[in-house]
Amino acid sequence: MRKHILSTAVMMACAGTSLAAIADESTTVGGKAYFDVTSIDQTSDGVSTSTSGVGMDVKRFYLAIDHKFDDMWSANLTTDFNYVSNDGETQLYVKKAYMQAKFSDEAVLRIGSADLPWVPFAEKAYGFRWVENTLIDRRKDGTSADWGVHLGGKFMDGKVEYAVAAINGKGYKDPTRSKGFDYEGRVSFYPIEGLTLGAGFRDGTQGLESETVDTANRATRMNLLAAYDFKMFKVGAEYYTVDNPTSTAILTGPQDEADGYSVFGSFSPADKVTVFARYDQSEYRNDLVPNITDTYYNVGVSYEARKNVDLAFVYKNDLVENGSVKTSNGTIGGVNEGEYTEFGLWAQVKF
Prior knowledge:
The chain is mainly beta. The protein has one domain (25-350): Porin (Beta Barrel). 11% of the residues lie in helices and 60% in strands.
């Protein structure tokens, strides 16, 4: 009898321990997708390019798995799938894969590929990433995630936040090691409800320097952002300046520089309906070619079809003068100028 009682007690203790361990752990799965069905008209020095035409794109499809071991330890895996009709190929990347240790609200450590300090911050302030990348991401002068060590936190009841990262430098699509880390950081302030202020920096060789390759210059970037959300409408502006943003400038020179700004706003005249617009202006200057200017704008109206499903009719225009530049919509420009226009339906689905 005593043996049965002892065996039962041991089994109950083991079961209790297992249930407690399960209770401490949790796994969630979610996702986000950006779709569009549009018509594109792109010209280079007045001649239509092969990019022109109608088609459907899956610009992004994120599938995220979060696992919480306990109040301190957790992990995340986020895949990034997209199909762009003018590429003719589907692509699948690991965007985020990190282990997180939350020591406190003031100190959260992530090791692996994780959100970088600036672009996700700017995306949150802008609010329409599903329609267009934010300023430096659209201009390919910055990216949203990279492999490395990331530290962030918040103070004063969330009114002050910081984020710093030591990263490989080539972005989440390329985890190749480099000779030294690139560094990116941000500090942001929320002094009153609705107001967002932020400043950021970036320094490094974008992962181009290795034990066998020396670089002539380093790329350095400064960012500023201010936005105010008045509930029915939002206004904001972002500015950046960068030295040596191109691989040529970093590897061999001559030195290059670029700067630009973006202003954006939105207004909600009715429930679930938002009218929005944005204007970007950026300029490249170097010793080999004349000033290259890139002028971009969009205007649209969005509708919340249901919770986590947004639709928008949008018109975009991007004019590049005095050369060509790479953007999130491909290479635009020509010997003198190139123009990109797009009109159609965009959609965002979250789950």
